[in-house]
Amino acid sequence: MTTPLKFRNISALPEDPVQTWPFEGVLAAVERGTLPDWRRLARAIRADPWGPVAQQVLEAVRLSRPYGTTELLEGVVKRAREVAADSERAEVAAEVRSLVSASGLSQQDFAARLGTSRSRLSTYMSGKLVPSAALVVRMRRVASRASAWLSPGTCLVITRTEAAFRVQASLRFGGAAGVW
Which of 60, 117, 155, 164 has most Cβ atoms within 10 angstroms of its Cβ? Predict the structure, then answer.
């Protein structure tokens, strides 16, 4: 028979949300808790894998090394972080695909404007690699510029290079080429 979890010398109660427990409460749950207590910890960890509960659980496990629960709780944190990272990677890949699509450019042209290869762009679009934050900003700029160029009512003169386009635009409109 298991006894319910009890806290000593802290103002929180075991019935309170796990996120409100001080470190001593998490430590007590790790050391003296039962499966329902560890499930509550696991739910909080899955909701925020790098948050305070996950950090406190890892610290409690490092301090007390409780037999049996060490592997269990370290595995919960590890798996929650893997799932979160996979989800984030998929979200970035979806944004990259959306930006390429919104630009109206081919993958080859979009990649060239980024200063990368089509195959590297493909790895970003599939989620195999995650682009740097700076590259994501560049992708957003390229997509917005390209979609502005291709919007209805826009007259474009297609030339070999963007520099030639700027010169031709400058000559056509009698002044400096606009910022794009």
Answer: 60
